[in-house]
Amino acid sequence: MKSRFKFSDILLSVGTFIVFALSIVLWIFIMTNDQYFSRIDQTNNVSQNSRSRRSRIIYNLYLPTSAYGFKNGQPYRLYDAKKNLPLEYIKDLKEVKYKNIREVSSNQKEYEAMLNDPKYLQLTFPNEVSVNLFTKKNLKSTDQTFRRSFISPSNDVLYLGNDKTTTIYRVEIANANFNRLREYAAKSRAKKPVKFVRMKNSYETFYDQPENWRVYSYLTNTQTDSYFVSRLLGTANVTSSNNKKGWTTYSLNYYTKLRVPDTKAGRHDMLYTRYEKQKNLSENDCLIDSVEYVHKLGLSEQDLRYFDTTKDKLSYSNYIEGMPVFMGKHSPQVSTKLTQDTEEVAFSNLELQIPIPFDGQTRTLPATGTVIQRLVNAGLKKTEIQRIIVAYRIEKDHSHDSLVNLIPTYYIKAYDQWKSAQEWEKQDFNKLAVKSQGEGK
C-alpha cells in the first residue's frame, strides 16, 4: 500500500507538471501570435451583448446636439455649458420603458404647428436616427426614424418627428421623469432667437439677425502612423509602399489597407479600406456597425457625436459648445462607408486635446436668410440646399505649433456635399449640376 501510494503521488506530480508546462506553452503561443491580438483588437466591441452595446452607443455617440425652447411664443436655441441638456435627456431615457409607438400625423402643416408649439421642449439630432437604437426592442417590424424629440408636459408621452417625411410619432412610455430637464432648459444661460425653415428635406435653424459667436482655441495632438497601423492592421505581416503623390499605403494583405499622408505634406486625412462581401443591413444595423469602426480607431470620443448620413456614408464630428467642428477643409472627424463589397473609414489623426481659456474673441455672422440669398445670387438653387448650420472651421494659430482656433462659419450641404458659404459662393454650379445628374443615372 505504501509503495502504491508513492507511485500515485509520482503520477500526480508528473501530470501536474505536464499540465503546467502545457499551459505555459499555450500562453507563450497566444501572447506572441499577433493575428490573435489583431483580431481581439478589431472585434472586442462586437462580442459584447446587444444591451451593453446599445447603451454605449447612446451615451457616447448618438446624442441630440441642439435644444430649443420658447419664451413669449418665440423659439430659442438653448445652450448651457454647465447643464448639458442633450446629455441630461439621454440620462433620462436610460430608465424609460417603451410601451407603444404609433404614427399620429404626416401632414406638413401639423408638423410645422408642432415645431412652433410652446408646450414642447425640443431636442434634435443632426440627422434622422433609428427608433430601435433607443427602445431596447423592436416595437414594430419596420424601424421608424426620427430627428426630433418633443418633450410634452406629461412624463407618460413622448413625441418623435421625422423632418424628411413630416411624420409625427406618439410614444407611450413609463418610468420617465423629464422634470429636471425642463428645469435646466428654463434656466439655460445662452438663448438665441431662431425660426424653423423648410429646406430640401429638413427644417433648418435660421437666425433672423446677426449673431456673435465665440472663437475657441485648442491644443491639438496627432497620433503616429504606427498607432493606427497597429490598431487596424496589427503588427505582423504588414508591408508599406510609397508613391509619388504624397501618400504611403500599409497593407496587411490584398484586401486590407491603410493609406496615410506623408508627414511633410501637413495633412491629416487617413483612409482604411477592407474589401469584403457584406450582408444587407437595416438602418439600425448600419448605425451600430458604423460605431464599431469608430471605436476601433482609438480616437478620443469625449466630444465625438454622430453628425450626418449621406447615401451609404455615416459621419461623426467633434462638438464644441453644441456646434460641430470640421477637421479638414469640409470633412468631419470620421466617416464610415459600408457597401456590399467594401468597408471604408476616412478619418483625421488630428485631435482636439486641451481647451485654452476663452479670451473674449468673437465673430459676427450675418442672419441666415442673408447667407441663403447670397448663395442664390451666386447660382445655387434654393431647392438644392439640404442643410445650413453654424459650425467651426479649424484655423492654425501661428503662435504655437499645436494650437488651433475654432472659427464660427456657416456650412451648407447641397448636392450631398458640405462646404462653407464662402466656398459655395465661388462654385461653378453649371458643372456641379451636370456632374450630379451623371451620378444619379
UniProtKB/TrEMBL annotation:
Keyword field: Membrane, Transmembrane, Transmembrane helix
Stretches that traverse the bilayer: 7-30
Domain of life: Bacteria
Keyword Transmembrane helix: yes
Gene3D superfamilies: 3.10.450.310
Protein name: YycH protein
